[in-house]
Amino acid sequence: MKKVFRGALCACLAGFVLASCEPVDQGGGDEAPVVSNPDVFILCEGLWQANNADVSAYNSTLKQCTGDYYYRQNGQYLGDTGQDILWHDGYLYVSVSGSSYVAKIDRQGREVARRAISPEEGQPRYLAAEGDYIYVTLYSGQVAKMKASNLSVVDYASVGMNPEDIALYKGQLLVANSGWGNDSTLTLIDVETFEPVKTIHVEHNPQRLVVSGDSVYLLAYGKYYNTTIQSIDVDKETARTITHATHAVAYDNTLYLCNSVTDYATYQTVNTFFSYDVATASLEEVNYLQGDVEDVLSNPVYMMEVNPKNGELYIGLAGNKYVSSGKVYRYDSDGTLIDDFSVMCNPNQAAFLE
Length: 354
Description:
Blueprint: H1 6-14, E1 40-44, E2 54-59, E3 64-66, H2 69-74, E4 82-88, E5 91-96, E6 101-105, E7 111-116, E8 124-130, E9 133-138, E10 142-147, E11 153-158, E12 163-169, E13 172-177, E14 185-190, E15 195-201, E16 206-212, E17 215-220, E18 228-233, E19 238-244, E20 247-251, E21 254-263, E22 268-277, E23 282-284, H3 294-298, E24 301-306, E25 313-317, E26 325-331, E27 337-345, E28 347-352
Antiparallel strand pairs: 1-2, 1-28, 2-3, 4-5, 5-6, 6-7, 8-9, 9-10, 10-11, 12-13, 13-14, 14-15, 16-17, 17-18, 18-19, 20-21, 21-22, 22-23, 24-25, 25-26, 26-27
């Protein structure tokens, strides 16, 4: 959940800096051992058209990270603009929007299957998974249903314009249709028939979905990128604005929020962290992060994820002017810092072992 569309942001920056991200210090260079038994995987978007997207792997028990995990195992980077990552049934699945493909990767970081996405299908965006299938939104206005085993497409569902995020909700699929700012709908898809069954009108340019039990929250960019968080009642087909923020994750009836605002003329950033009590439907303005948080408060937040097993928060910071190595801060559910570690360029998504 970014302040502007990530591809557009990186494209703009690439006009000034046509370079790869700085290499991550692995504590010994290329000869340093690859981290063993990672349980957290950070997708790093890379710099637009630099073909340097990668997956960083982290062992949360040993507090060890290998920044260029995919590169180490495959001899190449993921390509142009890593978009989304998820862990499902023992494998990682990654969508790479600029290079237009979806990959299946084992826990050791080795690619075992790949499905190229054609221009007619449109760039692949976000992923969801259930049972034997992976679902991916495509910029042609469709959702593809892929076999998890080999990534072959078995069906398509038509949704709105330029669909972004997709999430499971009560056994169905909910899709955010952005239309590059010209759409303002969510589409509900029946998983069995793979047909749209409902359209919900929301704020313009819907981007990211957060599902917490029976509650659904939407982050929408709006017409003028005044990023809005809405509470969605899928049954009643209504949307209610609750606040403005650029990032949102949910755990145990708490919606953790961050509003990250950067002045791109000066690259000065101000981050505000606050929360929303799902049970009481009330905002809590107090910063939930504890201790010395100066770095997290003053650098662009490019990622905020929560480990569904324990509520630990992973906050990813973009590198200097978005072109150097990123950094991830790991907090427990009470906001106490556990660890911080370097990753590759522009960390944007995380996947956790189930």
